Amino acid sequence: MGKLVQFIRESYAELRKVIWPSRDDVVGSVKIVIVSTIIIAAVLGLMDVILLLGVQTIFGG
Question: What's the pTM value of the predicted model, to 2 decimals?
């Protein structure tokens, strides 16, 4: 039981040392992730359409 209490105290002490990001930093990061996801999805979708058209052209689908 003593080790558990010590672990909790040390964990709490370490969490107090953490420099948490500001709300603006988090919002900015989320925006970047969303825009990047949309761009990557669009590129992959375009590649899928191009490859599908190529396969249909080759195999006469």
Answer: 0.67
